[in-house]
Structure formats: structure tokens, C-alpha cells
Amino acid sequence: MRIASVLAIALALAVPAIAEDAAPQTGTPPALQEGAMQLTAVELTPQPMIYVSTRSSMESQAIQQVVGDAFTALGKFLGEAQVTPLGPPMAIYSNWSEGQITTDVGFPVSAADAAKATGNVLAGSTPGGHAVKAIHKGPYEGMAATYAAIEAQMASAGIAQGTVSWEVYVGDPETTAAAELITEIYMQISAEDAAKLPAN
User: Fold this and answer.
1) For the segment 156-167, what is each residue's pLDDT rounded down to a tens digit?
2) Which of 29, 37, 129, 164 is the most buried (most CB within 10 A)?
3) What sign results for the dihedral spanned by CA atoms 53, 43, 189, 173?
4) In CATH, what number is assigned to the domain containing residue 103?
5) Which domain holds residue 55?
6) pTM of the predicted model, to two decimals?
């Protein structure tokens, strides 16, 4: 995915439902309706990644700003360091408390490219272990309803959400219609809870 496409994602991103100011949902969430989204359990192996980490308020504009700034910094770094992403961009959310959230925005890369990290571009690993996986299809601004549906299904199944969630932006907003964009949504869960879901 080209950096221009990544920046297009940054500009279009909506705030996930974990944000305190997410709009309240009424009626049956779309992803709970017949023929809609299915939750599956996955077990992921961490991969090397580069990322920019920011602690900010959970307000909509604040998260959009830090995500956009992170992608701008990453785009500059990728070009200068000649780093090639090995997968689509992702945003990892953690440590949400007292109106604050940590957002790590980055790409999976080779171990050799991860070693080039410098300054505010850090080296680390993508999340691993057991997680719930769901697919959001459509514009990014519709993800709040998808999060609400995921959380409702998890609660119904007695599945507790862990302390990390993340999004992988598979679709390219420069070449894909908004209605066809695919975003993979993951929520960390325990091994015991993973057994309650079909495996991916």
C-alpha cells in the first residue's frame, strides 16, 4: 500500500466504540442482524513492526489528529530509511482509562527493517495470542456500530475483552469504494474464551 493511501486512511478514520464520546446506538446493531458479521477466534504470532506511539484523550478529534500525525511521521521514515511494509497499516489501542488512550500506529516489517527504527519511530511486535476477529465492511465512520455489535455478542457469549484491541486497514481508500473497504477488528481474549467461538 502506497503512503498516499495510508494518509487517506488516516484522514478517514473514525473513532472506535471504546471512545467515551462515541455516539449512542439505538435499535439492533447492524452486525447483530441476520446474515451479518460473525465473530471467530484466532491465535496470532507476533511479527516485527515499526510504529509511532501516542497517549491522548479519547475524544474524536484527538485520536484522528494523533493517527494522522503518526502516519505522516511513518511515511517520511519509510521513504528515508527505505523500509518496505510487509502488510497493511494497523492501529493498536490500549490502556484506555480516565479519558486517555494509548494509540500505536504502524506496519509489520522485516526484523532487519525494524532494526532501523529511530527517534519517535519505534520497533516492536504486532499483538499476538488469542483474539476475537471480526470484519467491518464499509466506511470507517460506521465502525462504532460494528464495535457495539462485537461487544454485545461477546457479552452474550460470556467472553471478556482483554486490555488490547486493534484494527488492520486492508482496503485502500484510493482505489476502493467506501462501501467496499475492509477493516479487520481484533480484541484480545483469554484462551478459555477463545474456545467458545468458531476458529478462523
Assistant:
1) 999 999 999 999
2) 29
3) positive
4) 3.20.80.10
5) 3-21+30-194
6) 0.82
